[in-house]
């Protein structure tokens, strides 16, 4: 398996070359490809690119044999409606010089080994786990970006079993129904390898299974390979349960669930899939169960790996979860699992029903999700949540691979939400012990005996209310004391605009500006030109390039900044090259820098330099020069000290004002010959003196600073000291 995994990238590259050649030379392939592209755009994404469909063909070519042989289903490519469509394109590809069998000969020894291992597995459940492992490893090697965007990780059987059992219990206890009841119509909206539907098939008695299989079980998948695996898994489970008589699972759709409300599908080339989708859209779904993807967005604009936008679902989130949130930073609401919660509540409509998801559990206690928590309790009457945690960022003592049930970095939880009109509201919660490892958590779920704790949310929609919360609420909100405050700067290109060395940063920015301005000219000539990776792109920078807004290097924009707590670096502070400057052009003097969010430990530091936004929840900065007059008066009264006054700029303050960029499109490479920019206002302080070296660990008296080398990093900030003014401040 390891050798197969290592071989995949090279083989995929070779296949891409064959496909690229066919796009230009083989008319039959061009026509078949165009038809399949139309099918995919109708089913999955109207803006799907040819390159993404090329990737589907490669997935099919590299794995189709395993799909047939592991399940001993030689007719798979003709009986599966989407596989049959792909085979037409592959046949057209082979009408040129490409030989499918000859190309794949080099994989024979890997295929033979995998198939041999699969044949040695006696039980279907073992084969299913084995195939899940093959599928997961394939994507990790074949397309890490796809694995990242769609959260490719299969759900452990213990979690699947717990969730399906919980749905059965809720049907019985809340509605007096069972899985064989005709009112129970089930959908897995992001089925992956089909494990939830397989588990449900095993639970439905044979006398009711044929009817449920044909009319009351539905599943969707957006990626080709897992769609194949799900099809084989589900159809084989039905075959085994019914004791023979193979039957295709018509409830499985090759479709993007979140897209179903966006536009109608066309049936020009794949009428069978379109018919399946329409049947599902017309169904009165009462149970939604699954494992939605967790990814919140691409790591870099250069990855071209964004979660796509969904007009209807995104608007519903803005109108509900975001509108009723008191958080400043609501970016977390873009996470895919949040979209699936919003979609599920809307999909039930006015019907009573059940939603059961295993997902990122950040919504339980993080600030940005207060509006989501409010609406979950409005949309559902009973909510139970098992917190399996495993958030490595929040607890560095644990490991994602050994403590997290998915082997990932974020915390995980299982939520079962019941909509039952007229029922009293109920919210229950249980968190497993902090240091439990993955095996212990899965064993706990297999036991299914949960000691629930009842929760009563407060007026701010907090579910997990901290100790002394009532006392804390009696204090003034910090933001009420200031007439201006801001989050830290968000660069979206830290490795470009931050550096320890001032001169190195200046040289890099000058090169970056040259490359960026060259791309302006290239995109003016061809608006559809690609975005090369040697420029660290962001969404706003791309828009600026398309607007022909040039950059210019100015050495006065090299500023001291706090990149991380106690970590001063140089920052190129420029509106064009920094994605978001927020209120920093209006900030001078000392600020109180606070960590926001729950994933990092809270801190409060004082800084006289620009501060970074920070990952995992961001940060907030409160300039002492912007304390409200009434706040200053309250401090004077409380401390009986009439001399207390707002902080003002000092000679060591770092100016935050930004010189407007009005330079021509072709910048110089140094400040000596850069085009002139408007002079800063007379009141703007001059650039800070060269900072001391971090190599020195000695503590110096601030009244008699030691001179420092020119290119050393800026001084570390002082935090609020308890020392007297005659004592050295901590460094």
Low-confidence stretches: 146-152, 265-269, 296-305, 648-731
Counting DSSP H or I runs of 4 or more residues, the number of helices is 24
Residue fraction in strands: 5-15%
How is the largest sheet built, in terms of strand order?
3-2-1-4-5-7-6-8-9
How many E strands?
A: 17
> Could you tell me the mean pLDDT?
80
Helix share bin: 40-55%
Shape assignment: globular
**What is the end-to-end distance?**
52 Å
Structural class designation = alpha/beta
Largest beta-sheet details: 9 strands, mixed
| Backbone CA Rg | 30 Å
Key descriptive features of the protein:
731 residues, alpha/beta, four-stranded antiparallel sheet, 17 strands, globular, disordered C terminus
């Amino acid at each position: 398996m390891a050798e197969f995994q290592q071989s995949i990238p090279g083989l995929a590259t070779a296949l891409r070359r064959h496909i690229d050649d066919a796009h230009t030379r083989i008319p039959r392939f061009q026509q078949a490809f165009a038809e399949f592209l139309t099918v995919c755009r109708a089913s999955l994404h109207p803006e799907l690119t040819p390159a993404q469909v090329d990737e589907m063909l490669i997935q099919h070519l590299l794995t189709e044999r395993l799909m047939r042989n592991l399940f001993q289903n030689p007719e798979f490519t003709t009986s599966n409606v989407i596989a049959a469509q792909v085979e037409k394109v592959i046949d057209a590809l082979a009408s040129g010089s490409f030989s499918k069998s000859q190309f794949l000969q080099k994989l024979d020894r890997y295929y033979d080994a995998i198939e041999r291992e699969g044949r040695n597995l006696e039980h279907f459940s073992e084969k299913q786990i084995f195939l899940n492992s093959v599928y997961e490893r394939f994507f990790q090697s074949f397309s890490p970006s796809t694995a990242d965007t769609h959260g490719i990780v299969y759900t452990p059987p213990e979690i699947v079993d717990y969730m399906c059992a919980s749905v059965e219990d809720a049907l019985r206890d809340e509605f007096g129904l069972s899985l064989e009841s005709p009112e129970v119509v089930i959908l897995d909206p992001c089925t992956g390898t089909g494990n939830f539907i397989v588990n449900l098939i095993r639970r439905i008695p044979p006398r009711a299974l044929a009817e449920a299989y044909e009319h009351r079980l539905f599943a969707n998948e957006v990626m080709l390979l897992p769609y194949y695996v799900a099809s084989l898994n589900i159809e084989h489970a039905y075959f085994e349960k019914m004791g023979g008589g193979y039957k295709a699972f018509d409830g499985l759709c090759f479709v993007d669930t979140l897209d179903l409300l966006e536009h109608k599908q066309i049936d020009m080339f794949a009428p069978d899939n379109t018919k399946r989708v329409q049947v599902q859209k017309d169904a009165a779904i009462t149970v939604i169960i699954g494992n939605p993807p967790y990814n919140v967005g691409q790591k870099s604009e250069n990855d071209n790996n964004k979660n796509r936008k969904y007009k209807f679902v995104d608007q519903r989130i803005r109108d509900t979860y975001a509108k009723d949130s008191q958080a400043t930073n609501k970016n977390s609401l873009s996470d895919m699992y949040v979209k699936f919660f919003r979609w599920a509540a809307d999909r039930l409509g006015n019907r009573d029903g059940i939603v059961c998801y295993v997902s990122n559990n950040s919504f339980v206690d993080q600030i940005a999700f207060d509006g989501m928590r409010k609406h979950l309790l409005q949309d559902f009457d009973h909510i139970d949540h098992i917190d399996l945690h495993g958030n490595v960022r929040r607890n560095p003592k644990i490991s994602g691979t050994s403590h997290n049930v998915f082997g990932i970095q974020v915390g995980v939880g299982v939520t079962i939400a019941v909509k039952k009109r007229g029922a009293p509201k109920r919210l229950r919660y249980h968190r497993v012990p902090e240091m439990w490892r993955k095996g212990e958590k899965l064993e706990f779920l297999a036991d299914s005996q949960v000691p629930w704790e009842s929760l009563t949310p407060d007026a701010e929609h907090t579910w997990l209310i901290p100790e002394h919360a009532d006392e804390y609420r009696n204090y003034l909100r910090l933001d009420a004391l200031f007439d201006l405050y801001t989050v830290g700067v968000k660069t979206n290109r830290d490795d470009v605009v931050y550096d320890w060395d001032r001169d190195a940063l200046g040289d890099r920015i000058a090169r970056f500006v040259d490359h960026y301005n060259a791309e302006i000219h290239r995109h003016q000539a061809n608006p559809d030109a690609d975005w090369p990776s040697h420029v660290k792109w962001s969404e706003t920078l791309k828009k600026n390039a398309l607007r022909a807004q040039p950059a210019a290097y100015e050495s006065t924009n090299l500023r001291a900044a706090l990149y991380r707590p106690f970590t001063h670096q140089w920052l190129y502070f420029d509106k064009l090259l920094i994605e978001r400057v927020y209120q920093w052009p209006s900030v001078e003097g000392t600020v109180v820098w606070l960590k926001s969010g729950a994933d990092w430990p809270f801190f409060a530091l004082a800084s006289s330099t620009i501060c970074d936004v920070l990952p995992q929840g961001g940060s907030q900065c409160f300039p002492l020069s912007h304390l409200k007059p009434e706040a200053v008066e309250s401090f004077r009264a409380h401390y009986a000290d009439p001399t207390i006054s707002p902080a003002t700029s000092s000679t060591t303050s770092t100016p935050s004002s930004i010189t407007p960029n009005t330079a021509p499109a072709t910048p110089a490479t140094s400040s000596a010959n850069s085009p002139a920019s408007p002079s800063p206002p007379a009141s703007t302080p001059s650039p800070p003196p060269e900072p001391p070296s971090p190599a020195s660990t000695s503590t110096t008296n601030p009244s008699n600073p030691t001179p420092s080398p020119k290119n050393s990093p800026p001084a570390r900030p002082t935090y609020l000291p308890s020392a007297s003014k005659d004592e050295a401040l901590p460094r």
